[in-house]
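Take a record.
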Amino acid sequence: MVSASSFVSALELPDSLVELGHDAELLAALRAPDDLASLAGARTTLFEAIPYTRRMPRLVAGASQGFRDHLMAQYEAWDDQYAVLPPSVQVDLENVLAFGSILYADVGGQRRAVYETVRSIDRPYVSFAAEPPRPAPDAIFDTPVVSYFYLGSPGSHNYGHWLVDDLPRAAWLASHRDGVSVLLPSHGAAMDAVRRDSLRMLIGEPMPPITFLPAGRSQALARVSYVSPVTHHPVLKLPAAMRYVRDTIRAAATERFGDSGAGRRLFVIRGAARGRGIINLAEIEPLLADAGYETVDPETYDFAGQVDMFRAADRVIGVMGAAMTNTLFCPPGARVGYLAPVGWFEPFYWDLAGAIDQDYFVQFGPVAESGQPPHLSPFTLDPAATKTLLAEMDA
């Protein structure tokens, strides 16, 4: 996930970029230059801009008073400063070169990066150049009777970012699938399977054909539909987009699996190879089991299996990480508790909870490896603080 410090510091926007023209409000809010070239053309709004206020954490456990005070003050400042993202719009572009997650448009005979595909917050995570790395494409998509829909972002290799950054924008396909071919940058067989399965649950049948574009190659797209971002990490998401995915996927899961019931409680852990694990898990796990929480590792399930688990859970406690983005599929009003190393200021999950009206709780624990950033370190949880978390989530 993008760190909060990156979000605050990376606000400069080079004038070598192109923006789609709808984003002036965001650019002004970030004090970015307003002399950018804009692409002409009709726009269709997919998700409206809706201001939202995030609930402050119901509990911050396991940290010093100073850390809690600082965290709460920071959350209040972010909530006040970042209240709305511009609407997400669909545009039709012509003569585009795609390289990775970046689209390059033809502007005045020159290829220029489209701003929404390489925003300042995204730039540290892409191989960005104002001009495409190779002018001659490796492949050409120009079948006359086909309309192409490009769906990708710098974070779409990550399960959590795919769910909130990319999947909501595929809503456009629900009513525009005839004659459309979907293009997605490939991120390996496992992640590509997740993206195919989640698209099928979101838009249903018949599924348009999907082509996964190989990494490190460029594609010339004679014409392409593109939907602008629904998130600006780590503290802005379009509530309408998040709720569309939640409600649509939950309905699809009910149709596939039947009524899920309610009241399930999940304790979400991370595989050891993923890092940021709980050192004293053997001490903490029985506390959650006694409170009715079942231990799950979502990475051992396919996408539909993860949805099926979380759609019935009105209480979820888990280690901060991509798998906890599945709380998106919990029923409205669910309570979510996050476990994290002390020192990790990560508002992504707090913001997600705010966008879909969930109560947010967090417990921090001291890191085990002080020589590396907190979010990369294993950590220990105080059992007394965990008991407080369990009690507060039921209060």
Confidence is low (pLDDT under 50) at residues 1-40. The chain is about 25% helix and 25% strand. The two ends are 30 Å apart (CA to CA).
